Amino acid sequence: MADNQISLPAKLINGGIAGLIGVTCVFPIDLAKTRLQNQQNGSRIYTNMSDCLMKTVRSEGFTGMYRGAAVNLTLVTPEKAIKLAANDFFRQQLSKDGQKLTLVREMLAGCGAGTCQVIITTPMEMLKIQLQDAGRLEAQRKLIGPDAVRGRAKDCTFHLKSPSALQLSRNLLKHKGIAGLYTGLGATLLRDVPFSIIYFPLFANLNSLGRRNADGSAPFYISFLSGCLAGCAAAVAVNPVDVIKTRLQSLTRGHHEDTYSGVRDCISKILRHEGPSAFLKGSYCRALVIAPLFGIAQVVYFLGVGEFVLSLLRGQIN
């Protein structure tokens, strides 16, 4: 199905379904990414992704790998829907009489999409990170001692025994107001805008390669591979900012772990105490998360799932 034949409601449904499927498939890897990015020198619990996942299953059970998944599954639908639909909207606005967009205009469309999505992405990831990292902090507490982990958020206490997302939200709203849910907004923008600027033009150009279907659209496997490759490249490119964002949004710290007052302070302390290589922490995990996530999104678009769902809702299919 050609992309320009897909209605906006169908695009929103496509984005939501793709997000739900993708998150369910790759969430354990995302959990490993968060824990690897948050652990600092002198407080290492995990050596790599597989070690993190095995220790998580051993100490927290299989469900431990899905800590925070409920937040993602709840908010990923509007997040992905906004991201994909916004990119299409800006592409249409920037196109001249349906002509192919220049690279600069493609990048501008991606920039607009990345900016729009942070409305949902920031609170979603802020809450998810607290839930994902609770297991690492608990493991560190047992290893080092009961005083090894402490809450560092000003005027707000977060307990280690993984509170629910609702409890976290109430705590933040009570002590910090709506701004509490948008902790790390600047870092999220610094990550998601460049990501979209890289991803969408790269996907569009990769997807234009190779043979075409009769209606001019790309075969599904071309769209899938293009989504995976573009997602992987964009994810690795912005990983240093993702590390900064994860650190800033983690409200609870382990024993002797640094706290940060902002993006500059975070960069300075990471360079001073951990070296430049720390900015690559979790990069392969992030690539493994993002690549299939966006590959799946493009396949859902190709299959026209959104149009099918709309037809069911309208009673057009019996």
Description:
The chain is mainly alpha-helical and 318 residues long. It has twelve helices and two strands. It has helices at 8-38, 49-60, 69-94, 103-144, 165-176, 178-181, 185-207, 220-237, 239-249, 263-273, 283-303, 305-313, and strands at 150-151, 252-253. Strands 1-2 form a two-stranded antiparallel ribbon. α1 (8-38) crosses α12. The longest helix has 42 residues, at 103-144. It is globular.
Q: What key attributes describe this structure?
A:
318 residues; two-stranded antiparallel sheet; globular
Q: Layout of helices and strands, plus pairs?
A:
Blueprint (H helix, E strand, L loop, with lengths): L7 H31 L10 H12 L8 H26 L8 H42 L5 E2 L13 H12 L1 H4 L3 H23 L12 H18 L1 H11 L2 E2 L9 H11 L9 H21 L1 H9 L5
Antiparallel strand pairs: 1-2
Poorly predicted residue ranges:
152-160
Helix percent band: 55-70%
What is the tally of helical segments?
12
Q: DSSP strand (E) fraction?
A: under 5%
Q: Determine Rg (CA atoms, Å).
A: 20 Å
